[in-house]
Amino acid sequence: MATVERMPPGTVRLNDASSHPSGTKHVYTASTGSLVLQPKPTDDPDDPLNWATWRKWLNYGVVLVYVLFTFTLLDIAAVAYSQLVDELGMTYQISTIATALNFTGLAIGCVAFIPLTYRYGRRPIYLLSVTVQLVSAVWAGSVKSTNEYMAVNLVMGLGGAISETIVQITIADLFFVHQYATVNGIFLFMQGTGAFLGPVAAGFIVAAQGWRWMWFWNAIFLGVTLVVVVFVFEEATFIPSSADEAMANPPASSEEGFDGAADTQSKGQKGLDPLEMSRTTSLASRPVLTARSRKPLRSRLALVTKTDAPIKHHYITPFILLFQFPAVAYTAVTFGAVLAWFSVLISISSTRMVDPPYNFSPSDIGLLNLWPFVGQLIGALGAGPVSDRWIQALAKRNGGIYEPEMRLWLALFPAPLLVTGGILMFGIGIANEAPWVLLAMGIAVFACGFSVCLDVALAYLTDSYQNVSLHSHLQSLKPDLAKLTRVIGDALVGVVFIRNAISVIVLFCLSPWRDAVGMQNLFVMVGIISFLFCMVPIPLLIWGKRARVATADKYRYYSGRQPGHRPV
């Protein structure tokens, strides 16, 4: 039997149909046998992993509403380009600079705000984000000059900066490893809904009420979102009590290196899909909860849940992690590359297709976004469940042991073909004034590959560095060190910063790049570069586990500096 010493961060026992030593929590599926819950919940009723399924999904549902209107706000500007040209004297160069400033705000805001979630909790940061976005939406609808337009884009980026990182932290708060890809798929779907369907609605609003009202309507919906967050979203920060830590560190089993194992469940629970796992968890598979009282609603909806944990290192650690952990670097590069290429597609389509031979109106530009919406819908809702079932099957073949690299096969096929093919279809087509349907199909194909790449990258990062338990002998010598720890927030801050930094660079260079090489050559170059970026999973499939082994001690060091450790 494998020992803990040989298990790097991310390698966990995901299923075990044959043996169940005491201690590990399971759910049962027909295809894989007993599925071990990772991370292991405590016996505290306030542990978000122990929340009832409806309570988890209500909280996550509020987050999804926040994501929807955040990405609507961030992506509707291109619809009104021709109106901005007429009223504010907008030019293509100013438009790309404004978009680049938006990404600058996204990059800076993430670094500035996310560390505060460790000191003050999730709720105040969500509330701050929605409030800043609400103010920026009202301001955007009132701008009088291009300089003011560029300034509001920077503030808008600051307001939406946490939108991806804090969502991943919330997912890690509420859900288990075997659910990550599915839950991330839903997140990416809502992200895409805001980014793609938001402009569709905005196009009709511009046609009917003018471009300013597309911002004012967004402000109204953000105001409703603010009220919902205030009165519905519960604080998901979990601070274990001393009783949790004492009960969570019994003597290690002599025959199992995965912190012991557990009670099995009745075979009547067979056949559950990944989205039903948390329901099973909330019933028979959950640890027996203690009699302590659950926090009152007033405490769960408190404005601030303050801890005394230091946070200064959270402003530096994200950049250190980028260079020390290959999984973090891979996710950052993947996010940065695909988002940059997507920004190129949107920028070119919104400015070029308002001219002959296309002559698109604002509503036409908005409707064009239906195509990438369909593409990302197929990618997001397909990749997540397929990825989760894929890893369960591979883990079963691997003796129940799950390796995060098992997810990466989907990033090699079909993602590179979709991403590169979509770029070339759109780029070569628009350079040769091809029918708009061909251009729309290219964006849709790209969006499908875009969604698959992001879902796999997010799940791989979360799986690799979500948790790690110390050696079993440390549990008996130093129980306070035997904790499930997290560095996912710091890692994602670095990922989002690099992602937006790449987009800023590409957008600032886009206009002179296009002028220098021409439209067709621009997209041929982008297609080749995108394909090379999509090949990054190959070295991870070969050396990824070795890298996790080599960086295990560093991971334990950084995770040990995280506040709110969860006991094993």
Automatic annotation (TrEMBL):
InterPro entries in UniProt: MFS, MFS_dom, MFS_trans_sf
Membrane topology (UniProt): Multi-pass membrane protein
Classification via SUPFAM superfamilies: MFS general substrate transporter
Protein localization: Membrane
Gene Ontology molecular function terms on file: transmembrane transporter activity
Region of interest (Disordered), ranges: 1-24, 246-274
GO CC terms of this entry: plasma membrane
Chain ranges of the Major facilitator superfamily (MFS) profile domain: 58-545
Keywords for the protein's UniProt record, in alphabetical order: Membrane, Transmembrane, Transmembrane helix
Membrane-spanning intervals of the chain: 57-82, 94-118, 154-176, 188-208, 214-233, 319-348, 368-387, 408-430, 436-461, 487-510, 522-544
Superkingdom in the source lineage: Eukaryota
Protein name in the entry: Major facilitator superfamily transporter
Organism: Tolypocladium paradoxum
